[in-house]
Design goal:
Blueprint: E1 11-12, E2 17-18, E3 40-44, H1 49-60, E4 66-71, E5 82-86, E6 104-107, H2 113-116, H3 119-139, E7 144-148, H4 160-172, E8 179-184, E9 188-189, H5 197-209, E10 223-224, H6 225-236, E11 242-247, H7 248-260
Length: about 270
């Protein structure tokens, strides 16, 4: 996997912004260092843990001019950059006029087997809707597709959840984007509006387990949704081509580089 440089891609907590270099460096969407400027983006999954952080980061980024958000229920967020489109994901292909274009698509769609209620419903959200979103973005000339997958994703996995995630990764990689960035986090932690008992228990358990997960086991440490969102927004500003896969420990490492190269927490 290509190593990503974050020399000028810092995120600041004070405004939660993405610094992709001074605006004077940009010309026709790219600056002198080859960093891509995403002027308009499409986001799906903003009601989720990672998607909510992505939305905040994208709205606060000075390099993002417009955020189109697809959601099934209104979030009632007022922001001059935000365009909210309330629609069922099965019907999102009919929402946007052909002349609408985006530079990048952020996909944070996902559910759980318990929430979905059945394998078919889980497959619909985590596979079919994600593929439909990727096809929609390609139709509207997006060059980058960034998606949250899961640790252990493999289309050949004996585990249904991991197999669906693996099939999703394989399908979106064939749609024809110049760049596909796949993020495979481990156990997600972060503030949830309505946390389930298992999630609360899991977070507390991981706080105890994380310190002993070292070496090859480090990948299994829990990871905060905010860290994933930071890396997604930073990676979106890069011009790497092809399919890039970011395992959980790599996401952790890159988010630490962002912190070290910025004014985060200062």
């Amino acid at each position: 996997m290509n190593r990503v440089s974050f020399e000028k891609n810092g995120l600041k907590t004070s405004k939660i912004e993405l610094d992709c270099g001074s605006k004077s460096e940009f010309s026709n969407g790219r600056n002198k260092k080859g960093i891509f400027q995403s002027r308009s983006v499409l986001l799906a999954g903003a009601t989720g843990l990672v998607g909510g952080y992505c939305l905040r980061l994208l709205l606060d980024s000075p390099e993002i001019l417009e955020v189109n958000m697809i959601t099934r229920r209104p979030l009632n967020i007022a922001h001059p950059k935000l365009k909210e489109h309330c629609v069922e994901f099965s019907e999102m292909g009919d929402v946007f006029p052909q002349e609408v274009t985006w530079d990048a698509v952020f996909c944070c769609l996902g559910t759980t087997m318990k929430q979905a209620g059945s394998r078919e419903e889980f497959k619909k959200v985590d596979l079919e809707y994600v593929i439909a979103l990727a096809e929609l973005g390609k139709k509207h000339q997006a060059e980058k597709f960034l998606v949250v997958s899961s640790m252990g994703a493999s289309k050949n996995s004996p585990i249904f959840y991991s197999r669906i995630k693996g099939r999703m990764e394989a399908e979106i990689s064939k749609i024809g984007y110049k760049s596909v960035d796949i993020f495979r986090p481990s156990f997600l932690v972060g503030h949830r509006a309505n946390p389930r008992f298992g999630e609360r228990w899991g977070e507390k358990a991981m706080q105890i387990i994380n310190p002993v997960l070292v070496g090859p086991m480090r990948s299994y440490r829990s990871i905060s949704a905010e860290r994933i969102a930071r890396v997604m927004v930073s990676v979106a500003a890069r011009s790497e081509m092809g399919v890039q896969i970011y395992p959980s420990n790599e996401i952790q490492r890159l988010s630490s580089e962002i912190v070290q190269s910025s004014e985060w927490d200062q």
